């Protein structure tokens, strides 16, 4: 296990996944803050921390469930005709549907953030919260909604790194725990940074489109799909790491140029 966690692929996956989990968690932090701010001041910090810790537990449980489904590799139905061959398994279904969901959700989020950036925040603000338990319940509901794309991202970044799915599961759990700890300790500075540089969140959502497409091709590859005799290959994760690193480098250059102009 330790040897796997120290491999370059595992380290790169962990760093990239932790970064994406934090970027994806920004909206979560904003909505949690809105819900917590409806409480008396002495309860706000407590509600936020309890909510985030329970959210971490909720995500880990969901990761176990999704990992169990991903482990069901054996095809239960096969389509085999003159132009198409597909061995349908639960693994392929989860990856394929997850990929479509990530592409849909990311595209919708980008559109919403560009055209109606305060829509979701206004919905949360209008909900009444009068007690700590109500705030924590609201936080858990909010986090569950945001957990789906977070978990699918984790699956996309770690699937295929090791034949043993338990190793990938440990890697996903470590990334989730680190991201939640960082969000608890640095929620306000992270939120202020994203508010100042909203392009970072758009960039993170754009990465999800790449991950969604990668999940779809991986589902086709693992189900041994062939169309007119041409098999579908999986996209090497190194391409994804390079795209993310290059995009972040360009964003850093833009940040430096803007900062120098402001001076």
TrEMBL record:
<protein>
    <submittedName>
        <fullName>TerC family protein</fullName>
    </submittedName>
</protein>
<feature type="transmembrane region" description="Helical">
    <location>
        <begin position="202"/>
        <end position="219"/>
    </location>
</feature>
<dbReference type="InterPro" id="IPR036259">
    <property type="entry name" value="MFS_trans_sf"/>
</dbReference>
<feature type="transmembrane region" description="Helical">
    <location>
        <begin position="167"/>
        <end position="190"/>
    </location>
</feature>
<comment type="similarity">
    <text>Belongs to the TerC family.</text>
</comment>
<keyword id="KW-0472">Membrane</keyword>
<feature type="transmembrane region" description="Helical">
    <location>
        <begin position="239"/>
        <end position="257"/>
    </location>
</feature>
<feature type="transmembrane region" description="Helical">
    <location>
        <begin position="47"/>
        <end position="70"/>
    </location>
</feature>
<keyword id="KW-1133">Transmembrane helix</keyword>
<keyword id="KW-0812">Transmembrane</keyword>
<feature type="transmembrane region" description="Helical">
    <location>
        <begin position="135"/>
        <end position="155"/>
    </location>
</feature>
<feature type="transmembrane region" description="Helical">
    <location>
        <begin position="82"/>
        <end position="104"/>
    </location>
</feature>
<dbReference type="Pfam" id="PF03741">
    <property type="entry name" value="TerC"/>
</dbReference>
<feature type="transmembrane region" description="Helical">
    <location>
        <begin position="12"/>
        <end position="35"/>
    </location>
</feature>
<dbReference type="InterPro" id="IPR005496">
    <property type="entry name" value="Integral_membrane_TerC"/>
</dbReference>
């Amino acid at each position: 296990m330790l040897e796997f966690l120290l491999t370059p692929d595992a380290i790169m996956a962990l760093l990239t996944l932790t970064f994406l989990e934090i970027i994806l968690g920004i909206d979560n932090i904003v909505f949690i803050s809105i819900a917590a701010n409806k409480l008396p001041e002495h309860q706000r910090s407590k509600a936020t921390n309890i909510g985030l810790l329970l959210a971490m537990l909720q995500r880990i449980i969901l990761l176990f469930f999704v990992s169990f489904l991903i482990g069901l590799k054996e095809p239960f139905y096969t389509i085999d005709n003159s132009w198409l061959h597909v061995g349908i398994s639960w693994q392929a279904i989860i990856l394929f549907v997850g990929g479509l969901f990530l592409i849909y959700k990311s595209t919708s989020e980008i559109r919403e953030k560009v055209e109606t950036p305060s829509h979701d925040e206004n919905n949360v603000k209008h909900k009444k919260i009068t007690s700590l338990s109500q705030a924590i319940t609201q936080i858990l509901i909010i986090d569950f909604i945001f957990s789906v794309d977070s978990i699918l991202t984790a699956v996309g970044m770690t699937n295929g790194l090791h034949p043993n799915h338990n190793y990938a599961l440990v890697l996903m759990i470590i990334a989730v725990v680190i991201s939640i700890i960082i969000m608890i300790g640095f929620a306000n500075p992270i939120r202020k940074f994203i508010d100042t540089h909203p392009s970072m969140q758009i960039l993170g959502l754009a990465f999800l489109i790449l991950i969604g497409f990668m999940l779809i091709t991986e589902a086709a590859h693992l189900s041994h799909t062939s169309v007119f005799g041409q098999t579908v290959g999986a996209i090497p994760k190194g391409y994804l790491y390079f795209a993310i690193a290059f995009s972040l480098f360009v964003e850093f250059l833009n940040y430096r140029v803007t900062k120098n102009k402001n001076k």
